[in-house]
Design goal:
The protein is mostly helical. It has 14 helices and four strands.
Length: 331
């Protein structure tokens, strides 16, 4: 009888010391704090929860892809620019009077192309992804501003109830479909990371690319697919956003690059690659969305949001380094 109790205690101890559990505790604390201090309890009202789940899920979906890429040992600072470029692609295809699902498919092909360009320049040009995507961040947004003239343009897809339900509907009139997509993408990428050979290759590549190559892993293909995953998710969210707001704006995705990195780091993903899990990234992304939404509800000036995210990144990196040192010390 004693052995099962010990096993239960060890499982409980392991659960309580996981990064994901820590994030969950922090997330619950954030929800309580914002609920208590928001004027009139506005944070917890039904309308704000719907906004949080809809808008927050759009960002969080992309953050999941960025997490996979960071585990593979690379960065993508161009996600906001890929998002706005794909939004403009959606607008262009929309004006051709194509079926909206065809428009979305073509936009996703555009996202794949942009992710592929980032991957090729990084892997074949042997240029650090930080530099590559810093350049493409300015390139894609600059081209979008040039083509669009920086003007907001209407893109009303409300004539297709099926398309709206697919990307901007609600389940039971309450639960935004964006949140459902966030869960679905999280599950798919979680299965990919933790239950497939490709997932093992991602971790091996991020941990030590040279050793992975020596084992026969085609690390450039692994990284390339990770970049493409990010491109696909950016394009998908571009369609999702247009379905929600019915227009294109050239400021779409501004600042999402740092928020995505913050979400992944908060979720326990190492900046050096090879460490991270989808549950942590999922919770980290939602925590960042909660913080942003909570600051707005508390009527705190928006520029303070960047200050908060900066502090979150620094604190999360320091805590991750401390935990890694503790693990090495125990070994």
């Amino acid at each position: 009888m004693g052995k099962p109790v010990k096993q239960q205690n060890s499982y409980l101890k392991k659960l309580l010391t996981t990064r994901s559990f820590s994030i969950l505790v922090v997330l619950i604390a954030l929800l309580i704090i914002f609920t208590v201090f928001s004027p009139g309890g506005n944070f917890i009202n039904a309308e704000n929860i719907k906004v949080l789940l809809a808008y927050g899920s759009e960002f969080s979906i992309i953050a999941l892809g960025v997490g996979v890429l960071m585990i593979a040992g690379e960065f993508d600072l161009s996600i906001g620019s890929i998002l706005v470029f794909c939004s403009y692609l959606f607008l262009i295809f929309f004006k051709l009077n194509l079926n909206y699902f065809v428009v979305l498919a073509l936009t996703i092909l555009g996202g794949i192309a942009l992710g592929y360009i980032n991957a090729i320049v990084t892997t074949k040009g042997h240029i650090p992804s930080f530099i590559t995507t810093l350049g493409t961040m300015m390139l894609w947004r600059g081209l979008t501003l040039w083509f669009s003239g920086g003007l907001q343009q209407a893109c009303d897809v409300s004539s297709s109830s099926a398309f709206l339900s697919f990307l901007n509907g609600t389940i039971g009139g309450v639960f935004p479909v964006q949140a459902l997509w966030f869960i679905i993408v999280g599950i798919i990428l979680g299965l990919l990371l933790h239950y497939t050979r490709y997932g093992n290759w991602i971790y091996a590549t991020g941990d030590n690319a040279d050793a992975a190559r020596a084992m026969g892993i085609r690390t450039h293909i692994v990284k390339m697919t990770a970049f493409i995953i990010v491109g696909i998710l950016c394009a998908f969210v571009a369609g999702m956003q247009i379905a929600r707001v019915s227009c294109f704006t050239s400021r779409t995705g501004e600042g999402w690059e740092l928020k995505a990195i913050a979400a992944c780091v908060v979720g326990g993903t190492s900046l050096r690659g090879g460490i991270g899990d989808m549950a942590g990234i999922f919770l980290g992304a939602f925590a960042i969305s909660v913080i942003e939404n909570g600051l707005v509800v508390l009527r705190i000036p928006y520029f303070w949001t960047y200050t908060v995210f900066g502090l979150v990144i620094v604190f999360s990196v320091l805590s991750s380094m401390y935990l890694e040192k503790q693990k090495w010390a125990q070994k």
